[in-house]
Every structure is written in structure tokens, then in C-alpha cells.
Amino acid sequence: MERATRHPAIYLTHEQWDPYNQTIWVQTEAINWDSLDKFYRQYLTEYERRLGRSSTGMDEYRNQNACLFAKVIDFSMEENQLVYISNVMTCIFNALFAVPAIVGNILVVLAIWKTHLTRSPSNVLLSTLAFADLQVGLIVQTTFVCHKMAEIFKAAKLSCYTRFAYIVFGYCITAVSLLTLTGIALERFLALHLHLRYKEVVTKRRILTAASSFWVIGIAVTSLFFIQRTAFGSIVIAGEVLSIVITSVAYIKIYKIVRRHAREIQCQRRIDPGAHVELNMKKYQRSTCTMVIVFMLSFVCYVPYSLVMVAKLKYGFTGSVKVATDIFSTVVCINSSLNPFIYCWRMKEIRQAVWGVIKRNTGVNLGATEQSMMTFNPITQPKALDYGSGCKPLPQATHESVK
């Protein structure tokens, strides 16, 4: 046996050296611990010398733990235990909440596009948000669960590719969701601000164009993750803050306009007690309040994750940052599971349409009353009132916005 390094107690041979797998076979007798440190120094020197024979040897060694675009980081023993617990818990929660995210958002999308609800631009944007939430359950949470399972069972290659998938799709779909929430807020504002010009300006075709542009922007922003990762983090945080500010300002302005319209409604009721004007305004207020609830829920879910991204930029990807990232990314995904229940709870038309989709697909015939709810009849639309002097008529765009 050829001895590359001799030691009173340890023997190392060339044939037993595998530098890329870092495998070394050691034959021990009575180990002399005093000279063990010297042996390790010789071992590392020889290891680097052999890898350095080629110009790319050390680069290959440094990159052997790389996962496509990300480097695998070794944490301390305490951090590894915390990461393991986090992996198990987030895996369970994402697996559980993926089911309502998929089923609930499929029902909402079908309910909107299979009935007259697509006549309303706000419902078209709502279906865009539901479709994005559907992708969260179908793609993001599924790949997240696969990634965490691979981490738990130490399947490095599977963990690498599933991590790549859920990060790419996650950032893209999150961008689409935020843009759609901002678009819904602006559409609600224009419904009151434009008055009679609303129907002319906010058309279904323009809304579909805007929804398509949201996906283009989401893909473009996600591509920065591969081009300039430092700039990507800053752009994501800045974009989220800008989206929240625009949405908040839009809803504040809506609140002020609604208060003014409430005073006009009181004036109209003194002239003509027609209930449909108040009903339509209440309907608009309820649908707008529903979207405010959805926005606030998204705000609560997204802001902690943004703070974690700031911590990552400042402190690096430590074990604690990784655990916080997994936890709050799970919270963001859970938001997509809750939205369909909010729609059905707060919006009567959505609830009736979803119930109709369920009945039709389960083979149950709808009753006459429920059929009339699902069918659009222009004759039943409210007629214009003959307003007297002293009060201004409410803008007709208000009726259109709540259909």
C-alpha cells in the first residue's frame, strides 16, 4: 500500500482520496491526538494542491454546493434544528391550505365567467385576482411542499429544482396579485369619479388589457431575480410600498365621495322615496368594503414578508432569516385560500353564482327562484327617477359600477 502521508496512527493513500466527494479512508491503530492537528493541516494543504492543478479546480469545489442561482448555506446545529421544525410545520400548513385555494378560486373564476357577472369591469378584475390566487395553490404551494419534503429527506437535487420553481412563480404571481388589487381600487374610484363617462372610459376590453399587462409586468420583474438580485430585492420592496400607497389613497378618496353621495341620497329621499337609489349605493358600498377587507388582509400578510426581505438584505441569509422567510411566505400563500370565502361571505351575487356552479356540476337542478338570480334581465334594471329641484341627481355610473 502506497502511503501518501504517514502518521504514527493514521495512513492515507492516493487511491483512497476522492477530492470532489471529500471522501477519505483512515486506518487507525492507537491514535496519537497530539499530532492529529498537524495531520489535518497536511490534509487540507494536499487537498487544495490537488484541486489547484486545474485552473477551475477550486471554482468547481466552491460551486459544488450551488443550486442553479442560489448557494446552499450551512447553518449551525441550533439553527439546523430550528430550520427542520420550520420545514415540517410550513410543509403541513401549505399542504392543508392548498386545497381551499385551488377549489375556492376555481369556483369563483367559473362563477364569474359562466354568468352575467363578467358585464361588470370590477368582476373581471376580481376574476383576475382569483385566477392568480388559484396559481398560488396550484403551483406555488405545491412546489413549496415538494421543496420542503426534499429538504427534510435531504434530496438535494429535487430540493434545488423545486425551490427554483416556487421562488420564480411565487414572485411573479405575488406581483400580479398586488397589481390587481391596485387596479380594483382604481376601478372603484373611477366608478364614482367619472360619473356618466365611466361606462365609456372603463370598458371590458381595456380591463382585460390591463389584466394582461399585470402578468407581463410580473414576469418582467421576476426576470430581474436572475439578472441583478440586489436590485431585484429593492425593486420588489419599492413596488410593494408604491402599490399599497396608491391603493390606500384610492380608497380614502372613495370614502370621501361616498360620504358626499350619502348626503345626496338623503336629499333625494325627501323628494322621492324610491328605494332603488339607496339600494344601489349600499350595494356599491358593500362591494367596495369587501375589496377593502381583501386589501387589508393582503397588507397584513405581505408587510411582514417585506420586512424579512429587508432583514435578508441587511444581515444575510442566516438560519433565523430562513425560518422567518418560510413562515411569512406561508402566511402570504394562506391569504389566497381565504379570499374566496371573503367573496362569498360579503358579495351576494358571487355567492349565488358559486352556489349555482356547484349545483350544476353536481347534477342538481336549480329552482326557478335561483335560476332567475343567475339570469341577467335588463327589464329589471332600475328606471331613472324624475328628480325635482333642490337636489342633484346621482351619477348613473354608480348603478353601472355595482352590477
Q: What order do the SSEs take from the amino end to the carboxyl end, as H and E?
A: EEEEEHHEEHHHHHHHHHHH
The major β-sheet equals:
3 strands, antiparallel
**What's the CATH C level of the largest domain?**
Mainly Alpha
- The total count of strands amounts to 7
Q: What is the CATH topology classification name of the largest domain?
A: Rhopdopsin 7-helix transmembrane proteins
Radius of gyration: 30 Å
Which CATH architecture of the largest domain would you pick? Up-down Bundle
Alpha-beta classification = mainly alpha
* Count of structural domains: 2
Task: Output mean pLDDT.
Answer: 74
Strand content: under 5%
Strand order of the largest sheet: 1-2-5
From the N-terminal CA to the C-terminal CA, the straight-line distance is 87 Å
Low-confidence stretches: 1-33, 51-65, 366-403
The number of helical runs is: 13
Shape field: globular
The level of helicity is over 70%
Any idea what the CATH superfamily of the largest domain is called?
Rhodopsin 7-helix transmembrane proteins
